[in-house]
Amino acid sequence: MDSKNIRAALEKYGAETVVKMAKAISDTALSKKLTYKVIQTKKGPELTFSMPGYADYVDQGRYPWGIKGKIKDIPVNRWNKFPPPDAINDWAKSKGLSQFRDSKGRFASNDTRTFLISRSIAARGIKPRPFINIIYKDLQQLYSDIGSAAATDFAVALQKNFDDAGIGKES
Fold this sequence. Notes:
By secondary structure, this protein is mainly α. 49% of the residues lie in helices and 8% in strands. It is built from six helices and two strands. It has helices at residues 4-24, 55-60, 85-95, 110-124, 134-137, 139-165, and strands at residues 35-41, 44-50. The chain has a two-stranded antiparallel ribbon with strand order 1-2. Helix 1 packs antiparallel against helix 6. The protein is elongated, with a radius of gyration of 24 Å. The model has no long low-confidence stretch (mean pLDDT 85).
């Protein structure tokens, strides 16, 4: 069965959701890296959203050192580690952060810059900026749209089968 109407409903939902997510974090480079795609699988069309690995840290935030035990049920990866260095490097490049000089006038390496930023994040934390949950906000409307689209696709396929079999044609 051709599922072009279901694909169209998923495309519409994906495009609208990415725009809403990007708007929630519009002042970040991450907003330009949010994508979606609809692919055809054996089971039918499938919608997937993609974003860089550090998106979780932007969405959930990160607690500073020393918070353990003060707030219950904090996931371990939210307080006891430095952020991933690759994510910090990508962020620094996207912000156009250039190298800087140390107290002796020497240029600090990118690794040093990454370490200093990571240490600051680990010590001070990052305020959460929830945007991933936007994916789930309009699911009821998506379900309704998919139901209507599936009914339309089924009706078209059924009519095609009837036409191919010569059922319902007047002689």
